[in-house]
Design goal:
- This protein is mainly alpha-helical and about 625 residues long.
- Helix content is about 70%, strand content about 5%.
- The protein has 24 helices and 6 strands.
- The strands form 3 sheets. The protein has a two-stranded antiparallel sheet.
- The chain is globular and about 120 Å long.
- The N and C termini lie far apart (about 100 Å).
Length: about 625
């Protein structure tokens, strides 16, 4: 299956072609080149999935296939960095997710970005973004993953700041880049620690289940934790930054300043799921070597999920509602991995987390692309500028409703099946945590239908131009993603992806399923009463819980806390005194030394005038002085 390297190389080649030659092509030609390239990439990904899942199972377990591998840098006999393509159930599943969503975004953008300045540049960056994530998921070793991980960061910076004349977009791109760079420093340190003690970067060796490679680290501790646990915790810091886990979540809502199709790509298939994929890729290492870190991930993710869901309930910008929804749903996936065991029924969480990653990618891409069609029609992100759009935008209305039902966990849509398995795994791990996740699921259903009713059912706002349905280049991807959302839940996902590679047969827990659906229906009912028609209740609740409402509206002031810490404490309290010391003490000392040296050189420069007469005179004077001193002291 050596041809699979083309899945990464083709988008990279497209990036270079459009980046270097795009301005010489007509804008529509650039879009078509990028879209056709991604179409071929998607076709190769689907063919790879078909080949892998039909031929790679041996003795009931899917084996890893290194389809391509070339050595890049060698440090020791065992420690070297390779560039290659690793195929296993989760990497092949991610190829499907990334290529499908990216292709839909490419097609959608032909209509959404039509006439935009920098159209060629946009498609070049889309290709780079897709190439980066594809290279990340097929990495054969953790350092190759890190290389493409950083390319994902660069791509997101370029696309979030696509509207480079807009100050908000530039600020958002810099914020995303800087926050994730801090997180990636932890990732890099964790990689170096892990490789120092295991003598390898290779995923096959790290996750093989053979604990002998960790023997050198046995007994080595720091602050009460094993060195491997510290390494894995630092690696997770990188994942937490990419997947917007608290407190590194602050970049993601602001990333909405980029074009809406980019938001769909970031939230559904690329950047934010990279952290989940990282933990899943190293899951055997986390589970066998540092289960306490895995459990810590679950609790942090649960808090992040609840935190983001509460904020989403009060946001008025539709893209920010979806952004906080993504943070909450990524938390669901992380919780599933954190509470999972290894193999068989114990591995429910792992399978459920990967299943939810798959289903969420489809309906979250659908939600963002639907939001783009709405913004395209009303020229505003604010819900107050919408209302009653179901009549003017019937296709967007139906597809958006399907996505809302899916994320709320209503059967038979795909989100129900994956979320139900996560809740089952969480309740099995700890009932209290299961209750918290059920409450978050209820909030999810509420804020999504608050969004739905405010867009499509509330009293219509006045518009300068009559809203209309998006063109077919935009509605076709919506229909495709809606169809996938309707049927994806019936995929026997456990037969393809599980923690140990063996078949896992999904059995819905009837009690948990019934309760979760009932909770979702109640939440939808409350949202219907509050927002389908004008109701005084939301305003009354806002006044009653004014403090909580204001805090949630301002994202619990986390951004303000960051600004206070950076500007008031770090910049003013630490950086400014250091700058004063540098200018006045260090620079002053160097300037003083230079001043003294200059004065001394001016004083003695006459001794090197170049005049022979002066040299002879000085010489004679010296001889006379020496003679006198000798005679005097003799």
């Amino acid at each position: 299956m050596e041809y699979t390297v083309l899945i990464v190389l083709l988008p990279m080649l497209t990036f270079f072609v459009l980046g270097l030659l795009g301005t010489r092509l007509k804008p529509c030609a650039s879009g078509l080149v990028g879209t056709l390239s991604m179409g071929v990439t998607a076709a190769l990904s689907y063919w790879t999935a078909w080949q892998y899942f039909t031929t790679a199972k041996i003795d009931g377990v899917y084996r890893e296939i290194t389809a391509f591998d070339v050595e890049w840098l060698r440090f020791t006999d065992n420690l070297h960095i390779d560039l290659g393509v690793l195929l296993d159930p989760i990497s092949v599943m991610m190829l499907i997710v990334i290529s499908t969503v990216s292709l839909m975004v490419h097609i959608y953008s032909l209509g959404y970005m039509k006439g935009e300045r920098g159209f060629e540049r946009y498609y070049a960056f889309l290709s780079l973004f897709s190439c980066s994530m594809l290279g990340l998921v097929v990495a054969t070793n953790i350092f190759q993953m890190y290389i493409f991980w950083e390319l994902v960061g660069v791509s997101s910076y370029l696309l979030i700041g696509f509207y480079y004349t807009k100050p908000e977009a530039i600020a958002a791109s810099k914020k995303a880049f800087i926050v994730t760079r801090f997180a990636d420093l932890g990732f890099l340190i964790g990689i170096l620690l892990l490789s120092f003690y295991t003598k390898t970067f290779d995923f096959g060796l790290l996750t093989s289940g053979d604990g002998s490679i960790f023997s050198q680290a046995a007994g080595t501790t720091f602050m009460g934790g094993s060195v491997i646990a510290w390494a894995l915790a630092l690696i997770f810091v990188g994942g937490a930054g990419k997947s917007a886990m608290f407190p590194l979540h602050i970049w993601l809502p602001d990333a909405m300043e980029g074009p809406t199709p980019v938001s769909a790509l970031i939230h559904a298939a690329t950047m934010v799921v990279a952290g989940v994929y990282l933990v899943a890729r190293l899951f055997p290492v986390y589970y066998f070597q540092a289960p306490e870190v895995l459990h810590g991930i679950a609790y942090l993710a649960a808090f992040t999920s609840l935190f983001a869901a509460v904020i989403a309930c009060v946001q008025t910008d539709i893209k920010r509602v979806l952004a906080f929804s993504t943070i909450s749903q990524i938390g669901f996936m992380m919780v599933a991995l954190g509470v999972s065991g290894y193999g068989g029924h114990a591995g429910t969480g792992y399978m459920a987390g990967m299943f939810h990653l798959f289903t969420h990618a489809m309906f979250k891409a659908l939600l963002f692309l639907g939001a783009g069609a709405i913004i395209h029609a009303v020229h505003s992100n604010e819900m107050s500028r919408m209302g009653g759009l179901r009549k003017q935008m019937p296709v967007t209305h139906i597809t958006f409703l399907i996505a809302c039902l899916a994320i709320a966990g209503i059967p038979p849509f795909s989100g129900f099946f994956s979320k139900d398995e996560i809740l089952a795994a969480t309740f099995h791990f700890q009932p209290v945590l299961g209750g918290v996740m059920s409450f978050i699921a209820a909030l999810t259903a509420f804020y999504m239908f608050r969004l739905y009713y405010n867009i499509f059912w509330a009293t219509p706002a006045e518009h300068e131009h009559e809203p209309h349905e998006a063109p077919k280049t935009m509605t076709t991807p919506l229909i495709v993603l809606a169809l996938i959302t309707c049927v994806a839940g019936f995929i026997p996902f456990g037969k393809f992806v599980s923690s140990d590679g063996a078949d896992y047969i999904i059995h819905l827990d009837p009690v948990i399923a019934t309760v979760s659906v009932a909770i979702a229906l109640v939440s939808i009912g409350i949202a219907t009463l509050f927002y389908r028609k004008h109701s005084p209740v939301p305003d009354a609740l806002e006044r009653r819980f004014g403090g909580l409402y204001r805090a949630a509206s301002h994202r619990f002031y986390i951004d303000e806390i960051y600004l206070f810490v950076t500007k008031k404490i770090i910049f003013n309290g630490i950086s400014r005194p250091i700058a004063w010391f540098d200018r006045h003490v260090i620079d002053g000392a160097m300037d003083g030394l230079a001043f003294v040296t200059n004065k001394m050189s001016l004083a003695v420069r006459g001794l090197q005038s170049g005049r022979i007469q002066q040299y002879v005179l000085v010489f004679l004077c010296g001889v006379l002085i020496v003679t006198v001193l000798v005679l005097f002291f003799e």
